[in-house]
């Protein structure tokens, strides 16, 4: 590359510009052509200014020995000065009596034509950090890069955050080599929409082995008063180089502000005192804002000893959507850290079925030596060590995940009630279809009436706004039994088949709620404890374990939907009703995948239409409920759980490829419902770039072959799969999850290909919600 280097600290000086020479040498050693234009003296804190009304005059600098102040400045270029050494073949830099922004203009358009086009402008390394808005807004280093950006050139502002006034050549050399690698990486991987990058490198031993993180700029303010202190008019002041050196030494090294001093009282009193002012910003404001700010910003990252890379637009705004760790090619020296695993894993499930399969999946897909199992985050060697948590929702450490968004991966989103609560799901779909009438959801989700009810005696009031349901029930009163429309009642927050009933009249609905009313008025009302946790609330059943009722006052939220009749019935299953259990993986913000290996879960008894007088169709829910938790013996019952792709090939009334057609429907509906929640119900479904979640999504197929979305379940009961299909379905699902969600996040293996889906995981939605996964 042909790189133009500018700065705001001027030519090499151990006092005020100690890093520029080392960076230029490192860039040249890496094979780059380097052209240098610098201010002839210290120009810090000048931003993107130009000095208007003054002619800019260049001088010519010949660098001397690295880290020694023995370079020479000349009035004319080499060969034009009397006494020039004709054999001199070293570098010659241009110094101009202006600002960093002017250096960029002059370097881009008035010199170096013989070296070819300039590919990149590097401004720096600055003598001190330029993290947070307070430093950045005044920085001549960032101002120089900003000038290059508005001239249409890619630019990087580079700053070294030192903690010691001893400028160790070894530490500086490591920082320079590290900076060159990072400059090369950013140039080759320039993100769309970025005009310039602000890079802050801690000047500490081992910086090349510390993490490099994308950051956002901390928005802070001066809070302690003026950045100038008044001095006596007769007092002498330091030159710009010495003054900047004093500011940086006291501010960076000690982290303490220069105390503002009031002027001494004058002998004569006047309305206005004559005084001079000296630039003396209070660095304590910056350090305090970093300590009080949210972890992950540029100031915090540098404080933690890591390199900060802040993508910027040429309008002083960071570029959204770029975050996470930058993984440079390894040039680490051998050491004890080489024995550390690539990531740490915590698998902590209450279900032994899930625990063993997830541990097995991690072992198989990550390989030996790449991961190490720990039992607690306290076992991590450092809080920022890469870690994957697969835990029960209540035990997930979301605070750790939020504070370490580039190194901590969790197996659940914090908020997703827009999908997993039935009344919220109904609202999600209804709102989406209202705005998008052509949505696939319009033909694959039954319109639902939702209402709240504490006790049966208040049913009339609850139905006042459920006018579609009320009209249907009133219409049923005029129809013969065989023509009445049946409805299915579901509790909004129940699971495992609890609280599901069928009805076709208001009296029938009232009888259901009267059946569930508590025996005593002393029953405490549910305070919806845990509702914010998003876990489905398990209602307290009556003493009869086979009743599968609920306590109305403990649930409150109910939905009623038209009952799907007749469902698709398979001759091979003795005409038992079934639903399809689909496993769906949502990753980051937001990709959605459907696992191809689906299940068919069958009711315990052959189906009879509700209202069939020759059967006990309504009272015997075993003919209508397909949830195996409702059945004695559960998934162990013969024929209660089958592989979807092994269902009947030929079904009367359906095409030979009916299973593939159904799978396509399921994929389309799944992608659409996640988009509806993510875009239309953002308060109740909030994605995270460092999280994923597995959902159990249920569909019922009617006799025409149309798939109807029933519900979505967080933390689905994987054990319903049973022992026979355990490894084939759930085991493969977990292994695919590791490939698609875990490995790409940590940059392991062939991660890039997996995020686009696999043969077993079809990508059905890629929403890109403004946060990089």
Automatic annotation (TrEMBL):
Q: InterPro entries from the entry?
A: SurE-like_Pase/nucleotidase, SurE-like_sf, TTL, TTL/TTLL_fam
Positions of the UniProt region annotated as Disordered: 235-265, 514-549
Biased composition of type Acidic residues is found at 514-531
Q: List each copy of the Survival protein SurE-like phosphatase/nucleotidase domain by range.
A: 3-223
User: What domain of life?
Assistant: Eukaryota
GO terms (molecular function) for this protein are: hydrolase activity
Q: Which GO terms describe its cellular component?
A: P-body
- Compositionally biased region (Basic and acidic residues): 241-253
Concerning PANTHER family, the annotation shows: TUBULIN--TYROSINE LIGASE PBY1-RELATED
UniProt name for this protein: Survival protein SurE-like phosphatase/nucleotidase domain-containing protein
Question: In which organism is this protein found?
Answer: Aspergillus aculeatus (strain ATCC 16872 / CBS 172.66 / WB 5094)
Q: What is the lineage of its organism?
A: Eukaryota, Fungi, Dikarya, Ascomycota, Pezizomycotina
